[in-house]
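Quick log. Single chain, no ligands specified.
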Amino acid sequence: MFPNLAERADVPGGALSGGEQQMLCMCRTLMGDPDMIMIDEPTEGLAPKIVEQLAQLLQEIAKRGVSILLVEQKLSIALKISNRLYVMGHGKVVYEGTPDSLLQANDVKAEWLEV
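-> predicted structure:
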C-alpha cells in the first residue's frame, strides 16, 4: 500500500516526511502482532491523499481483528473505521454511539462538531 516507504529503507526515520513517519510508526507497531493499538491523531499535518491511504490502512488493520482506539479530529476518518464513537467536550464524554446514530444526532453535531 505504501511502496515509497520500502524504497526509502536507508533513510533515517527522522528524515522521513510526516506521512512516511506515520507509516513507519504503524509498521513498527504491527510487527508486535498486537490485539489493540492506540493512535493519537494520526492524520495531523498529512496531505489529503496520505490521509485517505492511512484510513484504508486502519480499515484493513481493523478487518484483521486488531482493536483500534483512535483519537482523531477528522470526523470523516473516524466515521469510516469506527464501530463505536465517543465525542468529548470540556474533558467529558458528551456523546456515545454508532457512526450512523452520530450522523442523525443533529444536536450533538451542532454543539460539538461544527465550526
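The chain has a mean pLDDT of 85.
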